[in-house]
Amino acid sequence: MKLITYLENGKEKVGALTADEKAVRPLPFADMLAAVEAGLEAVKAAPQGPAAPLEGVKLLAPIPRPRQDVICLGVNYASHAKEAKWFSSDHSEKPVPIYFSKRVNEAVAPGGTIPRHGDVTKELDYEAELALIIGRTAKNVPLERAAEHIFGYTVLNDVSARDVQHAHQQWYFGKSLDGFTPMGPCIVTADEIPFPPALDITSFVNGERRQSSNTQLLITGLGDIIAELSSGMTLLPGTIITTGTPSGVGLGFDPPRYLKSGDKVECAIEGIGVLCNTVE
């Protein structure tokens, strides 16, 4: 199933896209977090209302207001680690995962705008990422059972203020400005994608391809992420974990190619969809 959050006649709803993805059928859940907490089987079995044309509703981020900070992985593709100069190409050992969090007051909707924040940053950057949504309480999850705890997947653009990120020598502030978490266009339920996902991931700026890779190239895979994090903390249903970005971000060019007002950024993942946003 492809699940969306949308506005219809001023009311926020959760729904399932029709097979042709041209319409949405409402589901009887207060919001997407309630649907996640109910569980995948309950969502699949829930009665669906009459279809409404997708062009007649306003698409929101799948989880517009996450209950907790998004958990992020840094430099989780070797190509991006190299362009960010975290380790050399002849590095023989698997690096320790870099976890950080990202504050999200409200996730930016597909088609929404990314604030320029020109008074705070001169180095606005994009990062196309696969994000997973935890579907059941995860505590001390063994690697072989990690997939059972995933409700679904979405696309997330980990927008970053590079100068702020580097000046503070940690990433929280530079990753957490208002509007720095575009997400969507939908959540694809975990039963639709073989585990571990091997999906093409790309980004474009003003139609120019910038990033191109595949999620099978993650340094730390999804199962390892869930097993490791849950060994020391409880992951609640609705927790969003975004898994890192491949090479091709603005920082990686010489000279860097940061975002400007009016730039159109598209982040796409095979089988999920395209997340398109414009910089204010």
Structural summary, described in words:
The structure is a single chain. With 280 residues, the chain is of the alpha+beta class. The protein has two domains: 2-60; 70-279, Fumarylacetoacetase-like, C-terminal domain (Fumarylacetoacetate hydrolase, domain 2, Alpha-Beta Complex), CATH 3.90.850. It has six helices and 18 strands. The strands form three sheets. Strands 1, 2, 3, 4, 5, 6, 7, 10, 11, 13 and 16 form an eleven-stranded mixed sheet that branches. A five-stranded mixed sheet has the order 8-18-17-14-15, with no helix packed on it. The longest helix has 9 residues, at 222-230. It is globular, with a radius of gyration of 18 Å.
Summarize the structure.
The protein has 280 residues and is of the alpha+beta class. 14% of the residues lie in helices and 32% in strands.
